[in-house]
Amino acid sequence: MKKTFTGNTRLFLCISGAIIAIALIMQIVGVGMNLGIDFTGGSILSYSVGENYDVNDVITILQSAGYNDQPTKAAPSAASIALQQELAAQAAEATEEVAEETAEAAEETAEAAEETAEAAEETAEAVEETAEAVEETAEEAAEEFKPMLNMDKSGIKADGLTDLQIRLKLVDATVGMEETIANAVKSVVSGAEQTGYRTATNLEVSDLGYDLSYAGGNIIEFRMGADFDKAAVETAVKAALDEGGYNLTEIQFVKYDAEAEAAAKAAEAEEEAAEETGEAAAEETEEAEEAEEDEEEVEETGTDLRILLNMDDVTSQVRSILEREMSAKYPNFRFISVDHVSAIAGRDLLSNAVKALLIAFVCMLIYIAIRFSPLSGAAALFALVHDILIMCAFMVFFRFAFQVNSSFIAAILTIVGYSINNTIIIFDRIRENRKRPGMSQLPMMDVVEVSVSSTLARTINTTLTTLITLVCLFIFGVSSIKEFAFPLIIGMLAGTYSSVLLSGQVWAMWDEKLVAKRAAKSAK
User: Fold this and answer.
1) Residue 109's pLDDT is what?
2) Is residue 117 part of a domain?
3) What is the percent of the chain with per-residue pLDDT over 90, rounded to a whole number?
4) Alpha-helical segments (H) within 309-342
């Protein structure tokens, strides 16, 4: 009998062993799997771009900062849509104000020109001088900041994915800062109660009416209960932060009235709703409200405390480079949020994944042992471990292109379920063929050969139909989908390889050795 599938079993085992050994050596010498922040810990940065953009621009900026992490394009979230609408409204208001100021300036200039030609000449000279000064300032700014990106947007694909998510292996320098500040505030005002702690954007800070130069950071708020000594609180908090080693570029302490601020926001929301239905408030009322807001900006009132912090850490430095470069090409590029992932969570994820695999292996072993034989169960588990190791090996080989995150764990669990299906089909056919007349006396390898041959078409068809979908996902999917599709493709191929060329053959080899041992024992 021609042994197409069982004649080179040792060679196929050596090929798999070589692949796994090379990957293991690479892992040992430090060029192994590129673990993502799900396992190492880091930061997830979310941005709203406001228009279609080229993700390669983001990659270029990150690589200039020494990071090879893959950014992900995403559909605009609710927060992103609201942010862009607010930016559009602000731009419209600014345009109207500029138009009004320009018209007023034009009227004043016309009146001055009518009154005296000399004044017009002086104005023209002043305008020329101003234009020259503006040009000089622009030239100086251009010399100081030279964008690294190509400003041409003509080749950008319109895919509607106008949000950006970046997963970076960055250390969270704010760990423990919230507790440190809270303890410092309560050391001065014992009745202080913390009411909020969040990551803020520069847009939120400007909307609150604070320093526009603030670049974003963290905001922590307290209800103090009564009037308090702001200077004493500042001193205590700064001393605690210095002692804790927190490097801040800016910190602001603001007294405010939380209830009044909430009421003002509610009134503003009602006013916007009224404007949308055509019931806009009178201009005098708006001017009065603006005057009140300006007055509140100057004079701090209330018994609540808001502390604004801007960290000088690695995350902030990467954000600064990214936001400066992207804003130069995409004017509405805005930061949305940053989420920090602890390495402890990654260890828990890995631990739970290993537990899930062990439980699945035990259950499969019990089922196959009952359905077929314990030796068949051991051979099936050998094939599953082979598939998992091959997937890990290729993630090592392609570490420059793919990170190992939670999606890889999902891919492993998926392949375990899919691969065992093909293996059980072959074992079932082996059991049927062993009962057929004339085949019970054949060597186990010959029975495996016939069984694999008879199930080959089914195995190939099911594998190809699944691979077509996975390949399409890999080609047309975003980077996060590719990180899931790539190990699945490798696992599908490895599972087919082990089912057709290894699982039944390994079972036959073990069975023949076991029979030989029993025969030798009986002879003795």
Assistant:
1) 66
2) no
3) 33
4) 314-329
